[in-house]
């Protein structure tokens, strides 16, 4: 029997440790075996890409070994597990991250060099896994790395989009979108699990039935689609643990539509069945505006339903009493996108497991924790009731049930305050009656998390004030963090060795607070010299990339001033461009001797605009128009270069961040929930030029305001301060805007609306109000840059002060204060 076979195998093998050897000779043999048997090329004739494939498969074998052992161990220990549900994971490349976390990078490099290949060249062959849009999605990826490293018993769940985030192509300065068919060349990092599949139901109708006087609901679906699991092992660093990220792909259901087969319409029947696959085809490229699209809702439910079935199946393998469920299962929902999971668990418990409402409700309320990443109410997801009722009729009923009970309870607590009752209701009345997914998530979760302290204040005082007043104990924040494994160790090996050398240990890679030890050496000229050398090497790498991707040659003596992130009005790339225009105008108006005093700059901007976001697309075009003018002006030369790096993504970030001197995070105060790009720059010793928004406020506390360039006034913890009347607009601002308006950079008509949006009363994001302060901060950066000792000292202190912003710290906080999970370490 299966059980006997398993017991025998356990006795024979114990844990699989030691099956695969990691010395260079064994690795070499392994790679060659994969060349022959997996890639099916001759070992005498294979190219870089084929070598990359074989190498990846060899790494994958090692990942699988650990991953099996980890799951075997979890199974034995049966700890409370966390299920991290996110519709987006921006993983980027896997090879380098995996070999670093497995601790066998050098061994592979040696094995490859003996075969005549260079590790770095092969690593460059890999494309990005871009199953996400921006900050929220990369945060999930960083958190998975920390969860694995800290040995937490976790499963990640998401969707396996066939098309990830679009590729950005720039033609004549305009953004064009091309599909990202990332699976075209195979994906060695996933394991297809055809035997792990679940049916997901849509549409149909609900009937009430009764048996022995007990009423119950039966949902007869109108469509069924299969969800097939693809598993992606995520290795921890310095541990044997490797956790699983399970992504679902849609496949046609095995249940045939007999009718159409019988009527002889065989071809059409097959074609229609195949349409099921479209559910997991493509990632929605706009993370913030929910457009009430049916396909998007289908994606959400598809992923949620498959995950919940998988999770409940795993629970029931070992437990038969649902009272134990919240002690064994913690759900984390990443924004409201997976919040249908709440309703789905309720539905399964009530309709399928036959629990009564009270019991099911108690279980759900103890199991779910919710994180919101948003600061404005317009960004919150609302699903039209008509759409929900047609696609998920039973779920809509349950939502109404939750709301009815909640409203009754609330009336008892707050009385007849109808406007407050209306605001807190899950159902929004209006022209389009909708379900407010945030209200649903708050009501049903035990913890509501913000992503920075300032964000938490906004949640309490504005966004969710009504709920905070009702349940203050539910609200918490865990300031975001990023993983130092990817953002220093993988992407900046030079800095990584330098840090380890000066700290005398590599322990900071797991305990990043140790970086604070650099503080005492910040003024040491020897470290400073080595620090600058490392930066220069990274700048050379970046300069090469800029030249190949944009054709612009840049000088290494210039300050590399970078703003890379999604293009959004509130992130104010436009403020940056207007600042560049001001700088250009100043240079043009100087005499030759004054020009000699100018600090040379390379202004680097990168980021994608959502395909339907017209203003953001105009900002990209303006950046190119300004670049065209500036870069071709002989008066300017190397004093100023402007480059737009196309197709910004995780692997481009890994190149850009280590190579920059200054980075900009200049969102209008009160608009960035946290921001995580700033943390990556900080770790890499790039100085920040930033507004006191989101987590920057906490960064300033860690490094001291004197070690960065602050735009706007010093911290105003009072979020209301955003509403103060704007200071007058400066003459410089009027001048630069009129240059754009008058066609100095061409495309006069096209930029008209951008200029209109900067008029006094329309300047919603306060560019005019902040312009003077922005220019002052920039001028200050210039002054410091020429003082190499001071700049380097600030740079070292930035890295030294970045410890708090590791996702390891964030995850520890979640584990303790939200999820109630403990590490479960697989023995080595
Ligand atoms: N964020 O990336 C997204 N997408 C959204 O739809 C909403 C928020 C970002 O999430 C990051 C991770 O929490 C934050 O750092 C960032 O401020 C926020 O804009």
UniProtKB/TrEMBL annotation:
This protein's name: Alpha-1,4 glucan phosphorylase
What role is this protein assigned?
Allosteric enzyme that catalyzes the rate-limiting step in glycogen catabolism, the phosphorolytic cleavage of glycogen to produce glucose-1-phosphate, and plays a central role in maintaining cellular and organismal glucose homeostasis.
Q: What family is this protein classified in? A: Belongs to the glycogen phosphorylase family.
Record's catalysed reaction(s) = [(1->4)-alpha-D-glucosyl](n) + phosphate = [(1->4)-alpha-D-glucosyl](n-1) + alpha-D-glucose 1-phosphate
Note whether Transferase occurs among the keywords.
Answer: yes
The record's keywords, sorted A to Z, are: Allosteric enzyme, Carbohydrate metabolism, Glycosyltransferase, Pyridoxal phosphate, Transferase
What organism does the record attribute this protein to? Answer: Salvia divinorum (Maria pastora)
Shown residues within the full chain: 184 to 1011 of 1011
Its cofactor is: pyridoxal 5'-phosphate
């Amino acid at each position: 029997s299966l059980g006997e076979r398993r017991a025998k195998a356990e006795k024979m093998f114990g844990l699989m440790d030691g099956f695969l050897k990691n010395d260079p000779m064994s690795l070499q043999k392994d790679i060659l075996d994969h060349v022959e048997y997996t890639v099916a090329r001759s070992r005498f004739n294979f190219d870089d890409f084929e070598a990359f494939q074989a190498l990846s498969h060899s790494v994958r074998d090692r990942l699988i070994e650990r991953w099996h052992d980890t799951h075997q161990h979890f199974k034995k220990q049966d700890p409370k597990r966390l299920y991290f549900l996110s519709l987006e994971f921006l993983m980027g490349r896997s090879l380098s991250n995996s070999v670093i976390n497995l601790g066998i990078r050098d061994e592979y490099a040696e094995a490859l060099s003996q075969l005549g290949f260079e590790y770095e060249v092969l690593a460059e062959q890999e494309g990005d896994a871009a199953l996400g849009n921006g900050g929220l999605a990369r945060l999930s990826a960083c958190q998975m790395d920390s969860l694995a490293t800290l040995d937490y018993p976790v499963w990640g769940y998401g969707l396996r989009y066939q098309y990830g985030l679009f590729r950005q192509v720039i033609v004549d300065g305009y953004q064009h979108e091309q599909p990202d068919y990332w699976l075209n060349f195979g994906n060695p990092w996933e394991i297809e699990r055809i035997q792990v599949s679940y049916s997901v139901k849509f549409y149909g109708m609900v009937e009430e039935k009764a048996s022995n006087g007990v009423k119950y609901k039966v949902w007869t679906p109108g469509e069924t689609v299969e969800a097939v699991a693809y598993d992606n092992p995520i290795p921890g660093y310095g541990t044997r643990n490797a956790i699983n990220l399970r992504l679902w792909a849609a496949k046609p259901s095995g249940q045939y539509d007999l009718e159409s087969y019988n009527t002889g319409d065989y071809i059409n029947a097959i074609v229609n069945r195949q349409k099921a696959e479209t559910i997991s085809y493509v990632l929605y490229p706009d993370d913030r505006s929910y457009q009430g699209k049916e396909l998007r809702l289908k994606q959400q439910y598809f992923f949620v339903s498959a995950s919940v079935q998988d999770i409940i199946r795993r629970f029931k393998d070992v437990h038969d009493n649902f009272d134990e469920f919240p002690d064994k299962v913690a759900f984390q929902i990443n924004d409201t996108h997976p919040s249908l999971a709440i309703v789905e668990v309720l539905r399964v418990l009530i309709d399928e497991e036959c629990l009564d409402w009270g019991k099911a409700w108690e279980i759900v309320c103890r199991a779910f924790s919710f994180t919101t990443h948003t600061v404005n109410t317009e960004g919150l997801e609302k699903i039209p009731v008509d759409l929900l009722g047609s696609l998920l009729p039973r779920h809509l009923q349950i939502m109404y049930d939750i709301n009815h009970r909640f409203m009754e309870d609330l009336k008892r607590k707050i009385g007849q305050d109808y406007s407050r009752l209306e605001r807190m209701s899950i159902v929004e009345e209006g022209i389009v009656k909708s379900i407010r997914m945030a209200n649903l998530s708050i009501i049903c979760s035990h913890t509501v998390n913000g992503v920075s302290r300032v964000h938490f204040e906004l949640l309490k005082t504005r966004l969710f004030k009504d709920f905070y007043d009702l349940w203050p104990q539910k609200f918490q924040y865990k300031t975001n963090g990023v993983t130092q494994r990817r953002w220093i160790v993988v992407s900046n090996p030079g800095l990584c060795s330098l840090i380890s050398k000066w700290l005398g240990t590599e322990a900071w890679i797991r305990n990043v607070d140790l970086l604070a030890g650099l503080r005492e050496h910040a003024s040491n000229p020897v470290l400073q010299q080595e620090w600058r050398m490392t930066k220069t090497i990274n700048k050379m790498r970046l300069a090469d990339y800029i030249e190949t991707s944009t054709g612009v040659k840049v000088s290494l003596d210039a300050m590399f001033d970078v703003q890379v992130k999604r293009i959004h009005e509130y992130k104010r790339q436009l403020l940056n461009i207007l600042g560049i225009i001001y700088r250009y105008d100043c240079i043009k108006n100087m005499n030759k001797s004054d020009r000699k005093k100018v600090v040379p700059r390379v202004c680097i901007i990168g980021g994608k605009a959502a395909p339907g976001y017209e203003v953001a697309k105009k900002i990209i075009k303006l950046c190119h128009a300004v670049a065209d003018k500036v870069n071709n002006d002989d008066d300017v030369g190397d004093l100023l270069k402007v480059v737009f790096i196309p197709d910004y993504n995780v692997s481009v970030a890994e190149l850009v961040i280590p190579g920059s001197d200054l980075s900009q995070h200049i969102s209008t105060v009160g608009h960035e929930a946290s921001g995580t790009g700033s943390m990556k720059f900080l770790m890499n010793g790039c100085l920040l030029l930033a507004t006191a928004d989101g987590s920057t406020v906490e960064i300033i506390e860690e490094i001291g305001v004197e070690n960065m360039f602050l735009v706007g006034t010093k911290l105003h913890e009072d979020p209301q301060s955003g509403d103060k009347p704007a200071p007058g607009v400066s003459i410089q601002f009027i001048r630069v805007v009129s240059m754009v308006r008058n066609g100095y950079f061409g495309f006069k008509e096209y930029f008209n609306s951008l200029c209109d949006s900067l008029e006094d009363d329309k300047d919603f994001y306060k560019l005019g109000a902040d312009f003077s302060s922005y220019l002052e901060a920039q001028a200050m950066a210039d002054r410091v840059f020429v003082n190499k000792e001071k700049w380097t000292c600030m740079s070292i202190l930035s890295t030294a002060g970045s410890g708090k912003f590791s996702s390891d710290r964030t995850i520890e906080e979640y584990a303790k204060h939200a999820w109630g999970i403990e590490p479960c370490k697989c023995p080595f």
